[in-house]
Amino acid sequence: MFRRKFIENSSILAGGLLLPQDLLATNPFGDGRRIAPENRIKIGVIGCGDRGKGLIHIASQLPEEFELVAIADVLDFRINETLKQPGAAGVKSYTNYRDLLNDQQISAVFISTPLNMHFPIASDALKAGKHVYLEKTMTYNIPEAFALVELVKKHPGQTLQVGHQYRYAPIYYKVKEMIDNGYLGKVTQIESRWDRNNNWRRPIANPSLERKVNWRMYKEYSGGLMAELLSHQIDFINWAFRTHPQEIMATGGIDTYKDGRETYDNVQVMFRYEDMIGNFGTTLGNERDGYLFKLKGTKGTISLLVNEAIFYPEKSHQKELETVDGVTGATKIVWDKNGGIPIKTELPAKDGTYYSLKDFHKSILEKKQPDSNVITGATTAFCVHLANKALYGQQIERWEPKYNLS
């Protein structure tokens, strides 16, 4: 009885949420007690662009978990902007991140710099005895990903978490639970887009700052749209299906903004998994689809947004989910106007970063591996870098056995 199993076992309509270690609790123990002051983590933030300021904003919503002590950035105006932000007023500031790492008050760092600096700063932070929250994509290239995996093994008492925060959104855990329990049947097609209609360019006061401010547009610093946007959806597929691509094909170009940039503004990548195809696309020239993520299986489709998801059963299973007569007292399934079932969670729909930082705090205190860790981060980094090789090299890239980490 697909309908009864759907309601009773999947708990899609309410409850049953499979989340990492009671993230809803007010403390890491999940018993309602408040977090002891000595378990408050003193942090430093390295990189104060939009993402760095965003992390500070989210951390300020978790005052029992984190206390911001210092910030660091190579650009003075970024430091000045950040010091005016709520939650950052009066903290220490540095232009050299090594000075921040030498601050003995700080036990953990958030790293939100250009991609090419992720590995050197994370390496220095681990060697300085700090826990690390490292923004995605984990590393700039494949050799750095291998090196960081080995370095983390040499520092077993320290936590390194990778900032693929979308997988921490409660709805994504619910969708993973549905996949694990077979409600989509055999999934063979993934459709993923993340589109915008803007040039991705930040204004600069001085032309000499062009590459430092607009680093995402230059290959020396950036993995482009693959690293900055599509890495989130790629990471979720790796995690939810415990998989990785076998072959990667790609095409793209600078099709809209002829402004001297080097990274493409229009990208389409196809991943061939063992028994599944993943289509990942993004453009900066049209925002109609925005964030689009569909998982298509023999029993149904899930359409995912950042904090929302709808399950569309195939016709062969839809009849079993129709409302039954009132005698049975069975729960009535609520359908949307397009014949879908909205997927519910118990937790509020917050930015995934909120839940990812709660897991970071808990991982530090419990000395456990976070859900988004150096192994999962490396696997996604391999995917991103192979995709970029296929994209810019105009060739098919293939997964190698050495990329299988454990």
Care to give the gist of this entry?
By secondary structure, the protein is α/β, with parallel strands linked by helices.
Give a description of the structure.
The longest helix is centred in the last third of the chain and has 20 residues, at 374-393. The protein has helices spanning 2-8, 50-59, 76-83, 97-101, 118-127, 142-153, 170-180, 210-213, 224-241, 315-318, 352-366, 374-393, and strands spanning 41-46, 66-72, 92-94, 108-111, 131-135, 160-163, 187-194, 247-253, 266-272, 277-283, 291-297, 300-304, 309-313, 341-342, 397-398. The protein folds into 2 domains: 20-164, Rossmann fold (3-Layer(aba) Sandwich); 167-350 and 374-403, Dihydrodipicolinate Reductase, domain 2 (2-Layer Sandwich). Helix content is 31%, strand content 19%. The model is unreliable at 13-32 and 323-331 (pLDDT under 50). A hairpin with a 4-residue loop joins strand 12 and strand 13. By secondary structure, the protein is of the alpha/beta class.
